[in-house]
Here is the input.
Amino acid sequence: MSTRGKPFKACRKCRSLVDKKVEICPVCGSREFTEEWEGAIIVIDPGRSPVARELGLEAPGRYAIRVI
Here is the structure.
């Protein structure tokens, strides 16, 4: 990892990865974020993705696999 840190922060509620300047999660509306997350997945079609189904992701987007 670079010395700049992670380029995104993760929503604690839905694990959506967003720009650090975002104040409200565009997926779930939460205001609770963390920079402590691991792994990432990009979901294009959640209805056809077994990985999205396993992680409980219902909307397309970029998500953290694990939020710490």
User: Anything to note?
Assistant: The first strand starts at residue 8 and ends at 11. The domain at 8-67 is CATH 2.20.28.90 (Rubrerythrin, domain 2). The chain has a mean pLDDT of 92.
